[in-house]
């Protein structure tokens, strides 16, 4: 599964390629996922051993490599991989628990987003992503790494 959220928690894109069990409606699922991300980011920021001055404002997007953040966590049934862009776009992949490090894949997906969505003159920032070329290219990429 893949989620793309903007900085305000609006789900811009949700895709699934293999999800055998559905327990929530889509809106509840999106709220739960964004809440999980917000909580994990807050937890990692609070556990960061650097001084409060160096931490900046909690909840504000950080530049890659800035501050303490998490990239993924694993349970016995899935692995969640996460990336946040400097503009606050959050990309989440939920995969098989034995999947390796997906940071490069998340960067690649973000670059697809920039090329096919952000640069698209017909796209309105903050609206759901409905770009067929992006979806097709994303599907090809995900099926190639799966």
Structure commentary:
The protein is 38% helix and 16% strand. It is of the alpha+beta class and 146 residues long. The protein has a five-stranded antiparallel sheet, with helices on one face.
Summarize the entry for a quick read.
By secondary structure, the protein is α+β, with helices and mostly antiparallel strands.
Number of strands: 5
* Uncertain parts: none
Oligomer: single chain
Q: Give the strand content.
A: 15-25%
Topology summary:
Elements: E1 2-5, E2 11-15, H1 26-47, H2 52-55, E3 72-74, E4 79-84, E5 90-95, H3 103-118, H4 132-145
Antiparallel strand pairs: 1-2, 1-5, 3-4, 4-5
Helix pairs in contact: 3-4
List the keywords.
5 strands, alpha+beta, 4 helices
């Amino acid at each position: 599964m893949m989620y793309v959220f903007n900085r305000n928690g609006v789900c811009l894109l949700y895709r699934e390629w293999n999800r055998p069990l559905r327990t929530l409606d889509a809106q509840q699922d999106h709220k739960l996922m964004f809440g999980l991300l917000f909580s994990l980011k807050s937890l990692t920021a609070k556990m960061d051993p650097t001084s409060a001055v160096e931490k900046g404002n909690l909840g504000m997007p950080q530049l890659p490599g800035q501050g303490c953040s998490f990239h993924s966590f694993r349970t016995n049934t899935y692995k969640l991989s996460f990336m946040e862009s400097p503009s606050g776009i959050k990309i989440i992949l939920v995969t098989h628990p034995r999947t390796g490090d997906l940071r490069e894949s998340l960067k690649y997906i973000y670059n697809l987003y920039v090329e096919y969505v952000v640069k698209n003159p017909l796209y309105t920032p903050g609206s759901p992503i409905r770009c067929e070329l992006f979806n097709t290219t994303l599907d090809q990429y995900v099926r190639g790494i799966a």
